[in-house]
Amino acid sequence: MQIFHRIPAILGFAISFVFCHAARTDEKPMMKAVVAHEYGAPEVLKFEEVPRPEPKEDEALVRVIASGVNPADPLTLSGKYAREFGTHLPLIPGYDIAGVVEKIGAKITKLKVGDAVYGYPTFGGGWAEYVTAKEWEVAAKPKSLNFVQAAAVPMGALTAWQALVDVAKLQPGQTVLIHGGSGGVGSFAIQIAKARGARVIATASTANQDLLKQLGADVAVDYTKTRFEDVARDVDAVLDPVGKETLPRSYDVVKQGGIVMSLVARPDPAEFKKRGIHGAAISVHPDAEDLTEIAHLIEAGKIKPVVTQVLPLSEAIAAQQQAATHHTRGKLVLRIADDPKG
Domains along the chain? Predict the structure, then answer.
């Protein structure tokens, strides 16, 4: 009889266990991330737990090991260009990633679970333990780089590549003037131009003259002491990530038929027509094929990232404040997980 008296209690426990277990399995997996719930200065960023994203059928879920910090990140965070960038709140920054494929959607054909990848998710999300990415936004991580080094590459190198190779169509023997040669884009632009067989004139401050030479610049110009117009003449192309007065001053150093490319302003068509030169406003886009070409140059020893500082994800505010100065030497990277030696 005692056993029958215990049946309701046992049943109650079993039912309770089933419902509790079901509730736990229905809960979304969580992850640590840096999130902005409002637009503004770096101080709006919060380090918190959020639901882990689930990849769509044409996406891969990437476990992020490291994520780069870019000079354009504060612009995204400000909300001034939300329409142009396609951003929305809540916002997780991070447009440079290096990590390992954790899960793939049904339509993914080129990636598999366990692949080490690096890339540029169009809408960010890299300052988190996991991010989803389209197949055309990532490529195989260069084997010669660790994940922190690889995370310093995508956006800066893609910008330089798409400007010099796709737009300027830089050829061997041509001369290119690269402003801000010690920065995230400029440091890659120097190396890509040299890999293309071009002659490179690059500008930077006094403290970064040694870096310009290490990267391969044929002529290093200290813009605090020398006007670049006194050194650069009849160049085939100019790459300008600086803007302000640097852009219009660059018009007269370009030979007829040459091109001026700006990352931060729209060049003046009337001025170009007057001088018989071309101009282009450069915007970067993710491209797995370009990332693969860049990886080949990295493996060949022709391109190397310049990583100035590595910070934990919890120090993203400090990283964003540094990016906002536009005076970072090379790239700053956030380490999100231990390097799995992939």
Answer: 30-153+305-335 (3.90.180.10), 156-281 (3.40.50.720)
